[in-house]
Amino acid sequence: MNNHKQSATALAASATLLLMLGTSGVAPTSAEDFTRFRGVDATGVANDHPALPSRWNKTENVAWVADVPGQGWGSPIVVGNRVFVSAVVADEENIKPKGGLYLGKGVRDPAKGMHHWMVYCFNLTTGKELWRHQAYAGRPVVPRHPKSSYAAETPTTDGQRLYVLFGDLGLYCYRLEGDLLWSQPIEPKKTNMDYGAAASPVVHNGQVFVVYDNKEASWIASFDAQTGNQRWITKRDETMSWATPLVWQNDKRTEIVVPGQRFNRSYSLDGKELWRFDGNMSVLVIPSPFAAHGMCYISSGYVGDAHRPTFAIRPGAQGKIATEGEFGDSDFIEWYQPKASPYNTTQIVYGDYLYTVYDQGFMTCHNALTGEEVYGKRRFSPKGSFTSSPWAYDGKVFCLSEHGLTYVIKAGPEFEILNTNPLDELCIATPSVVDGKLLIRTLTKVYCITRDE
């Protein structure tokens, strides 16, 4: 492990910035909206609220349960009193998703029969369906990962419009009331091992950013939020990454951070590359970058790789910022750990601690400021496997297994499971937290969890 010490002046400046912007370094648009994958600031850390429980099951502390036809693994998005989710409904039965690791190829043939790419809107207070819209109907033309869905992406919103990405199909923009405003088709490409697309869109200052890494012609592009017109597109020589990009607003500038198997990169808001470095990343790059303590955290950890790195990046970089084997010599890598990253899940920084949830049922903890190990691998009991990313509030870190069991972990330097909460259904989507309500999406439902009155 390599470690750079910031000066007291730099740390003080970071602390001042954090007080102004919050621990993520991103100024939230609304404390009562959930606008993208892992929330407004992309950290997974929610505001404490007296209505947020630490115990639940299918009936306890459940305000409502909404049935969601079809299959989708995007998180619920919330604007005001509306909850949005996407899904794909198949007319014929196909291979059903299941948990666990798939160390091999995807579903080699497109799914059978007509499919309906759907968007649903529910009332946040009651769970009543407000509207549904069919974005597209047809037969899939690309295969997918056996655990994934043709609606793997989490929608995003700027508080005025809803942007729904079906990664191998198109980007769709709706009024919050359900009217389709515009759509942009996306030409499907062959992806690594036929796994399909999965990176979610993000919106910032009138632009919707989409990353599509594939084996034919990878790119990052910007679409005008009002019209859908493409503002710019930048080619990427990447093939094996599915991470959702981060719009990182730091004390130097605003930039778009995108990990990659060949290079981790940052782009300006007009698509120009700002910096890059070869992090000797895992062969498959899935965890999404996020910011905390004035730094950006980047990771990848395919289970079969010896090198599963986590990097904490300082703002202000330009050009090539590091060389493999010399990460500790970079002025812009605050610290680096060679074997501290998950495969599918995204890490979480809560307080001064970085928690990593491994797909095979372990958790580790590191000092978020220095990278030093706080505790090594601790096994979840009962055992479980994980794809959903952790979230946190009220001094606790929550980890949702693929079997629908949430482990409640006491935050801090000691690993302690406080309790477990069963929903007994396949769970791949990462939950959302807003205004005292926890929204957990299972294979067939959305649960609204809040303290019983």
TrEMBL record:
**Lineage: superkingdom:** Bacteria
Q: Which UniProt keywords apply?
A: Signal
- Where does the signal sequence lie? 1-26
What SUPFAM superfamilies does the record tag this protein with?
Quinoprotein alcohol dehydrogenase-like (SSF50998)
Check the record and name the InterPro entries matching this protein: PQQ_rpt_dom (IPR002372), Quinoprotein_ADH-like_sf (IPR011047), WD40/YVTN_repeat-like_dom_sf (IPR015943)
Instruction: Tell me which residues make up the Pyrrolo-quinoline quinone repeat domain.
Output: 58-236
**What Gene3D superfamilies does the database record attribute to this sequence?**
YVTN repeat-like/Quinoprotein amine dehydrogenase
- What PANTHER family does this protein map onto? CELL SURFACE PROTEIN, OUTER MEMBRANE PROTEIN ASSEMBLY FACTOR BAMB
**Name assigned to this protein:** Outer membrane protein assembly factor BamB
